[in-house]
Amino acid sequence: MKPVENQEAALNGKSLLSSLNKSSSHIWKSRLSWRIAAVVFLTILTVQVAILTLTIRQEETKLLSDIKEVARSAIAPVIENNVGFLQSPISDNKARNIITTTIVNGITVYSMDYLLLGHYGEPSTISITNEDSLAKTYRSGDGASYEVIFRPDDLRRSYIIVARLNSEKVSNLVINYVIETITIMLLLSLFVTTVLMIALGHWLLEPILFMRDNLILAQQNPENPKIPKSPFNASDEIGSAITMAQSLIKQNAENMQQVRSAAEDKIHKLAYFDQLTGLPNRILFTQKLTEQAFTSDNKSNKEFAVVTLDLDHFKDINDSMGHSVGDAILRGVAKRLRSNLPEDAVVARVDADEFAVTMPLNSDLKTARDVGAKVAKIINGEHFKVYNESFQIRTSIGVATYPKDGTDPNTVLKHADIALNRAKEEGRDRIREYSEDFDRAVQQRFQLLRDLRDALENEDLTIFYQPQFDLKSGKIIGAEALIRWWKKDNSKEGGAFISPAEFIPIAEQSGLIVPIGEWVLKEACTTAKTWHEQGKNIRIAVNVSGAQFYQSDLVAYTAKTLKETGVKPELLELEVTESIFMDDISIAVETLNKLHKLGVELAIDDFGTGYSSLSYLRQFNIDRLKIDQSFIRNALNNADDAAITRTIISLGHSLNLQVIAEGVETKDHEKFLIEHGCDEVQGFRYSKAVPKEEFQKFVDDYSGNLDSFNS
Predict the structure, then answer these.
(1) What predicted TM-score, i.e. pTM, was given to this entire model?
(2) C-alpha angle 709/706/633, rounded to 5°?
């Protein structure tokens, strides 16, 4: 062999030895290796123990056969052939000599006819009586004695001899045999197990452990696993499996990186962009606003406008035409704003139908109002065409200017929102610039809300009652419960009444209307129960707001209140407005049906001012239609209002409903309603809403004749 080849062989040998040593060290650190080693070791040991169990008996038999041969060799030579009939062929001296010098402890001699001829030493347990007895052997319980039978063929003499032998050494020899065998088995098992484990480790376990380490690295850093190159031959099964596993790990890392990148992009879009229009959302708009305010380009006293806009009556389009049409309009508004405003303008969708725009002021658009006017022109200019339908969209706009209306961008945006709310409050379809007065108005509203909460907790609210009359009989048949708030102060009068028109909208927007409505319901039921006990069967009508109708369990609370107060259900009437039914007609029908089952009466308040309740009217379990006072007030001098009033009365009667008109102020109003068959009335002609005590006095003093009231 050449020197180079010798060096390569040496290197390969060292490499193999190093690999084996490394493999061996890794093997014994693996729990799997220990399990396999234990199974292999125990399997080999079990097989050997089974073999030992079979060979112990053979070894014992061999040892007993050996001492039997020793005994035969000692006894056979001393047997004499020429002795008399029925005489023992062994002399006493020879027998004693055998017993004292050999393992033979006793000798019993029989003739061929099974006759006892002589006995020497220890007596034997075996007795010979027939031929069947010749096959017997006997071993004492402690193993110290072993009795065998020598036949004439064994002795080559015409005698049968039973020899009692000392077999104590046999047990010890068997024990030594077992110990030696077990020692050899353990050493052999350990050797075979070790060799097998080294071989398995090199060809199987080491690759598996290497693959496991790869998987651990992939688990710790799945997107960028630092896995070493496989040292195993890729042409065999294990090596190819490792190669495939590493390939899958790398593919998984690449996929995860792609998924993470896509997810981050998706999350970014979800977090910062509106999914419907693709415009930035409020979060990103605020960030852009901040960037625009604090970038170096804007530090030289530059101003920019912040515009917020809301699409007027957009909810009506959604409710009447469907959300698909509404979504199409929103996308159209976004596209129109983005394409018609300058590149440096940021356009965002910040709420359902609310958009925001910010852009630097320049020579063409010098003020925030100019920007607002441009935005209004963009939206109001052309109709939006969706599914062959044309929609004229109007918008309410609020504008503020940075830094005039605030040095903090978030504050400027808030001020633009305040201006937008003022535009909507003033009738919509207009532009309002932010004014500090608006902010003060908002603060006043918040203060009023806080005071209203205190008034509810301190029981400063009260209920006034306005009587309702039957037009045919003139009797007082009901009363509408109207909430009043006497707000205490430090004035000479001690306080002043806050108009319901001022605090009810605030209560509805804040959700405070729900506990207020529940309090009114309970107070009204308690009053109705008191009047009934006094002999006055007067129905009390209680207004139910939309928030109370949907946000509270109105049915359960009404049932609970009826039970607690003990009032008859027919003495309670719940008035709901048409607008409530527009939110969710199915829930409205279900709720009205449940209330109807309680036995309370139901009325639709302000009937005729809604949008589509007529088409659903036949589905409702109601008892009464209430004509809005705006129709009654103008019925005498406005033909349209008079026609609407007549139509509502006719519609109600065709559905077997009672019709009540509110806002009756004059005798002529009353006469008009009587002529057209209206059933019930209430209004200032008869009485304004009064406290409970005054109402009771009014009822007691009433003559029962409507003509007693002045025109």
Answers:
(1) 0.52
(2) 75
